[in-house]
Amino acid sequence: MLEQYSAQKDQITRIRQKSSDLRRIVQTSLERNRKKLDLQSKQMKDTQKMDKYKVYGELINTYGYNLEEGCKSFKALNYYTNEEITIPLDPTMSPQENAKKYFDRYNKLKRTAQALEEQIKDTEERNPASGIHQHGTGHCSSGKRSVPDQRRADRIRLYQKTLFRK
């Protein structure tokens, strides 16, 4: 009887330890995803400047014929907004090279924005405990599960089974 009590107590202790380990793993993963999503969101904000670079390149191509080499900047009428803007130039480059530089920046930011959209979507889908209570039991908060939520719950259950077998 004492042995049975001791064995049962040991089993409960092991379960609590495994549960604690699982909770810590889930929390760490959640925190990583939050940080990753924050970083990706900041990068996405940086890509909002891409249209400015496209306009700069277009305006240099449009009005650049009367520019001299070595100019540090020039003022041009933005035909999209009918406002005069000052476009910074690299004095070591020709007007066409400056326009190319701005178009290259535009294209790079455009590609970055497209890649970030996919990465943000993946990060949001990979949230390992989305829809799962924080206490780590593995029960879903709603009655129906989406396919990714079902897969996550299955992975957590499988992990719990492997932990409790030891």
What topology does this entry show?
Layout: H1 2-46, H2 50-63, E1 73-78, E2 83-88, H3 95-125, H4 147-165
Antiparallel strand pairs: 1-2
Helix pairs in contact: 1-3, 1-4, 2-3
Question: What can you see in these coordinates?
Answer:
The chain is mainly alpha-helical and 166 residues long. Helix content is 66%, strand content 7%. The protein has a two-stranded antiparallel ribbon. A hairpin with a 4-residue loop joins strand 1 and strand 2. About 9% of the residues have low confidence.
**Can you write the helix and strand succession as a string?**
HHEEHH
**Strand count, sense and closure of the main sheet?**
2 strands, antiparallel
- Mind telling me the C-alpha Rg? 28 Å
Shape from CA axes? Answer: rod-shaped
Overall pLDDT metric: 81
Spatial order of strands in the largest sheet: 1-2
Secondary-structure content class: mainly alpha
Low-confidence stretches are 129-143
The proportion of strand residues reads 5-15%
The count of DSSP E runs of length 2 or more, i.e. the number of strands, is 2
Q: Determine the N-to-C terminus distance.
A: 23 Å
How many distinct helices? 4
Q: What's the helical proportion of residues?
A: 55-70%
TL;DR?
With 166 residues, the protein is mainly α. The protein has helices spanning 2-46, 50-63, 95-125, 147-165; strands at residues 73-78, 83-88.
Question: What attributes characterize this protein structure?
Answer:
about 170 residues; about 65% helix; single chain; 2 strands; about 5% strand; mainly alpha
